[in-house]
């Protein structure tokens, strides 16, 4: 015979004061490894190139589909 499942009750969330919240936030932000200038430039360049490539790809498909539809007389 299977055992009945135990119900798990969620404890009440602990409320922290705004002062403690911001103090812990500042403490965590000090532990973050921030990227250097060269890394930011590289990541930004990569993201822009990917956006440009994807934009050209979508534009190419749009032109191709428009030409195909005009050949078969739908537009």
Binned, the helix content reads: 55-70%
In whole angstroms, the N-to-C terminal distance is 68 Å
Q: Which structural class do the helices and strands define?
A: mainly alpha
Instruction: Please tell me the overall pLDDT.
Output: 89
Instruction: Please describe the biggest sheet, giving its number of strands, its sense, and whether it closes into a barrel.
Output: none
Number of helices: 2
Strand fraction equals: under 5%
As an assembly, this protein is single chain
Radius of gyration: 27 Å
Name the overall outline.
flat
| Low-pLDDT stretches | none
Number of DSSP strands? 0
Task: Explain how this protein is built.
The protein has 75 residues and is mainly alpha-helical. It starts with 17 loop residues before the first helix and ends with a helix. The protein is flat and about 65 Å long. The model has no long low-confidence stretch (mean pLDDT 89). The longest helix has 35 residues, at 37-71. It has a domain at 37-75. It contains 2 helices and no strands.
What is the strand and helix layout of this fold?
Blueprint (H helix, E strand, L loop, with lengths): L17 H14 L5 H35 L4
């Amino acid at each position: 015979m299977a055992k009945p499942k135990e119900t798990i009750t969620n404890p009440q969330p602990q409320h922290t004061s705004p002062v403690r919240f911001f103090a812990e936030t500042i403490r965590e932000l000090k532990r973050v490894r921030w990227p250097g200038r060269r890394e930011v430039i590289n990541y930004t360049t990569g993201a822009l190139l990917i956006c440009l490539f994807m934009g050209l790809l979508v534009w190419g498909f749009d032109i191709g589909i428009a030409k195909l539809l005009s050949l078969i007389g739908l537009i």
